[in-house]
Write a structure and sequence with these properties.
- By secondary structure, the protein is α+β, with helices and mostly antiparallel strands.
- 35% of the residues lie in helices and 43% in strands.
- It has a six-stranded mixed beta sheet, with helices on one face.
- Strand 3 and strand 4 form a beta hairpin.
- The protein is globular.
């Protein structure tokens, strides 16, 4: 079940349908990301939306899961960075994502901004 929820969520945000993506996220979500902890669905959407809307393309590399957890690894391209691999390990409770451990390399973004 968690894998199906995570994949549906991924397809929604990578398709730039933030309303559909957020429908899979619990109101009290906790996300640990490279920049720190994000708590609550409003803060999570504010974190995700600018990046999701900037996407040029995405490629799902791998997806694994069981009833409670799922792990997705993907690569993204945006106007700022041509290749930005990332991974999310999510916990699903009651059909919604309650926790996300989100990992990505911040260095390519830093270098691109410094060069601009």
């Amino acid at each position: 079940m968690a894998l199906q929820i995570a994949l549906a969520y991924y397809r929604a945000w990578t398709g730039k349908d933030l309303d559909a993506a957020i429908a899979y996220v619990a109101d009290d979500i906790v996300c640990d990301a490279p920049a720190g902890r994000i708590e609550g669905v409003a803060a999570y959407r504010a974190f995700l939306e600018p990046f999701a809307l900037s996407l040029i393309s995405t490629e799902l590399i791998a997806a694994y899961g069981d009833e409670q957890q799922a792990l997705l690894m993907y690569d993204t391209a945006s106007p700022l960075v041509a290749s930005a691999p990332g991974a999310e390990c999510v916990t699903v409770t009651g059909g919604r994502i309650t926790y996300s451990r989100f990992l990505f390399d911040r260095l390519p973004f830093h270098l691109a901004r410094a060069a601009a």
